[in-house]
């Protein structure tokens, strides 16, 4: 079941949805790119259909709706704590297949990675629903086909994509059919079947790979800005910060702040120790986590091939190229 809509129908549909849901979608931000004359596509709450960017791939992922860059978890005094309030109204998030696959990674890390679910992640997750943006063509730097993230069959309530001079949607949850204005038709979601960029993901990484000289290159090339992990839909790491309201440190708040293995200070420990200082060691840790360590625990690769890390790196370090270099080194050792 689905709907075919013209621009006016689509606008009415979005208007009806916005009455019951907060809508979180990719939006073109004019002049907010690296330079003042560059635009960028990132996520924001929208009210009008014209705000939703369906053609361009977003430069940042959707994950800030679930993992804010800085989130107050709770407030404390000497005698009590209080969980911080959050807007828990239902949200519809518009995202592509690679990001919806990324959601599975986030859920595994925060909901299925221990005995207990992460309370703060889960209370938001329960109120978030997903709209799949169909991909009618591959984008620059994408390698989602190689990572098996180019297509997904469930996890979304309906799809949306531009079609000819209008829009089309596949309805997966019948409860959303009443919001649609348009002509009812059978609709199939578009997905990419081939990327220009292709990677060969190794099935197994031997311990000898950890000592390869290939990682030393990134001691110099990588500047440790962390942009690659900030745009990534599957990076989940954070650090904790306490902000004190009094000089004695007995009243304040605790915040969860986005961080990663690529950013200075992430491996700092009590006593002044700091591990993986060379950028090459950080790069090795990130790459092997994406295509080996995560898979050892959950059975599939962490990377979804969205290609954002390749596009955002100021030093033009290509993650897809790194995977292929890693695979070539493993095959060379096996000869």
Describe the structure.
The chain has 335 residues and is of the alpha+beta class. The chain has two domains: 2-67 and 87-185, no CATH class; 207-235 and 262-334, no CATH class. It is 25% helix and 20% strand. The protein has eight helices and twelve strands. It has helices at 7-18, 97-111, 119-125, 217-221, 227-231, 279-298, 308-312, 319-334; strands spanning 2-5, 22-29, 40-46, 70-76, 81-83, 91-95, 128-133, 158-163, 166-170, 183-185, 238-244, 252-258. The strands form two sheets. The chain has an eight-stranded mixed sheet. Strands 5-4-12-11 form a four-stranded antiparallel sheet, with no helix packed on it. A hairpin with a 7-residue loop joins strand 11 and strand 12 (252-258). The radius of gyration is 22 Å and the shape is globular. The model has no long low-confidence stretch (mean pLDDT 94). GO terms for molecular function: iron-sulfur cluster binding; metal ion binding. Keywords: Iron, Iron-sulfur, Metal-binding. Residues 212-243, 294-322 form the 4Fe-4S ferredoxin-type domain.
